[in-house]
Amino acid sequence: MHKMDRLFIFFLMGLLMLTACGAAAKMVYTDLDILKKLENFDIPEDDDDYDTKLFDLPSFTSRGSGKSLVNVDTFGAAGDGVSDDTQAFVSAWKQACGTPKSVLLVPQGRSYLVNATKFNGPCERKFIIQIDGTIVAPEEPTNWDPKFQRIWLEFSKLKGVVFQGNGVIDGSGSKWWAASCKKNKSNPCKSAPTAFTIESSSGVKVRGLTIQNSQQMNFIIARSTSVRVYKVIVSSPGDSPNTDGIHITGSTNVVLQDCKIGTGDDCVSIVNASSNIKMKRIYCGPGHGISIGSLGNHNTTGIVTKVVLDTAFLKETTNGLRIKTYQGGSGYVKGVRFTNVVMQDVSNPILIDQFYCDNPTSCQNQTSAVKISQIMYRNVFGTTKSEKAIKFACSDTVPCSHIVLNNVNLEGKDGKVEAYCNSAEGFGYGVVHPSADCLYSHDDKGLDQSDKSGPALVIEEAETGHDEL
Ligand SMILES: *[C@@H]1O[C@H](CO)[C@@H](O)[C@H](O)[C@H]1NC(C)=O
Ligand SMILES: *[C@@H]1O[C@H](CO)[C@@H](O)[C@H](O)[C@H]1NC(C)=O
Ligand SMILES: *[C@@H]1O[C@H](CO)[C@@H](O)[C@H](O)[C@H]1NC(C)=O
Ligand SMILES: *[C@@H]1O[C@H](CO)[C@@H](O)[C@H](O)[C@H]1NC(C)=O
Ligand SMILES: *[C@@H]1O[C@H](CO)[C@@H](O)[C@H](O)[C@H]1NC(C)=O
Asked: Which residues line ligand 4 (CB under 6 A)?
């Protein structure tokens, strides 16, 4: 059996037990509006059986399949890991993209050295990019084309394409990491390429690929809608700087499912202008956890709404479930549900940090901040490495509101665990350990009254907008 399959069966067994104890507590609070709404807030997933026979390569070539196979080798790719295969990939892309029902094939058992390249659509319908071999980046940062400072392989303006296969996209990032200012303060803080970027696209599926050792972020989904990512593995060393696993920006209706991510920064990070994001069965570790943000840096506006994480295992990560915003920002994070999460030796398992600062100079407290509300943590279990297992560090002027904890049990190695709150309103029910009594209640004196009068919840079912792929 596949290693990952075994892992998820282990999750599922654990979660069956968790769900059983969740039911009783729920009854008492069903009259609370916020819980009901968060309960119903979900994004439909696809069943992952779409065209599964496509994995079966011979069917591409068999007569009557109607597929047009475009093999990079036909365009002169050497696949020896040394020769520059960029031009062969560009030519093969051009041919495949312009032909209906084509399959661009990167054959298995070979390694293709490809420079930074933008592969642009739109392409003809039913385009499949089948990556079974390895694509590697040149490893020398000093030779990198400055025109492509932030990208290695970028795919843009695509509609209804499938990336799939058992292949590997390898950023050969070690020299980039050494040149990072996070590694050596005397290095300049410069951006580095992202291994794999989906840009300004819709109806994209990515299935089965491994993305590893990226120069910086591994996989970015940017300004896109309706993206499905299944069984993708991201692997970069735990000490590689800023190597986020999957980064979502400006995108809506995105599902990440059955992904295993180990990296040196956030396993998943979701930033500005993203909504309707669902993560299901995610393994994270090593890494900095599953994050919303950062948002609001340099007084900018950040908006993230409707995010669901259902079933995750985090192992030895430096954070667990994190929302991070800078002082001075504006906008909001609203409607987030983290459920069925198992943690093992995680630092900062549950964290809202409205004082986040990752700038070379320190950040000052300001009166404006990104507002954080309607955040639910349910069935979160495991072990914490920090005493403050639950930390809601919210702005004095823009408090966090509607924070709900249900069936949370985090144990410290040496027994003592505690919750910390600054300016955070909400409540816990069922088992909540450490106790989150530091949350102030909606009815407490001193609560910003304007918070009560307005419509507290803006999670509209109709807006879910699940597009067919
Ligand atoms: C790839 O990059 C190298 C180094 O910049 C350059 O010499 C080479 O011409 C590039 N190859 C292509 C096909 O652009
Ligand atoms: C950091 O970079 C500087 C300048 O490039 C170099 O002289 C120094 O040896 C580096 N330090 C370490 C610890 O690598
Ligand atoms: C956030 O997204 C909105 C909407 O797309 C955009 O207007 C704004 O400039 C973005 N903010 C940043 C910091 O990029
Ligand atoms: C952000 O706004 C504060 C308060 O108005 C101001 O002092 C600060 O200089 C601004 N920072 C940036 C990066 O614009
Ligand atoms: C910012 O405000 C928080 C909450 O009141 C406080 O804990 C922190 O010390 C302040 N930081 C600075 C730099 O003033």
From this structure: 298-299, 328, 366
Which CATH number is associated with domain 41-288? 2.160.20.10
Does ligand 1 have an atom closer than 6 angstroms to the CB of 117? Answer: no
Residue count of the chain, please give it: 469
Section 299-303 average pLDDT: 98
By three-state DSSP, how is residue 3 classified? helix
Q: Which of 288, 402, 433, 442 is catalytic?
A: 288
Give a three-class secondary structure readout of 181-213: CCCCCCCCCCCCCEEEEEECCEEEEEECCEEEC
**85 CA distance to ligand 1 centroid (A)?**
9
Q: What is the pLDDT of residues 393-434, one digit of tens each?
A: 999 999 999 999 999 999 998 889 999 999 999 999 999 999
Break the chain into its structural domains and give their ranges: 41-288
Is residue 337 within 8 Å of residue 366, measured between CB atoms? Answer: no
Strand partners, 150: none
Is the bond preceding 286 in cis, omega lying within 30 degrees of 0?
Answer: yes
Backbone angles phi, psi at 250, to 5 degrees: 60, 30
pLDDT of the residue at 414: 80
pTM: 0.88
Any catalytic annotation for residue 442? no
Instruction: Please work out whether the CB of residue 115 comes within 6 Å of at least one atom of ligand 1.
Output: yes
| Closest CA to ligand 2's atom 14 | 184
Give the Å distance between the CA of 176 and the centre of ligand 2.
14
Tens of pLDDT along 4-35? 545 554 554 444 344 434 433 333 344 456 55
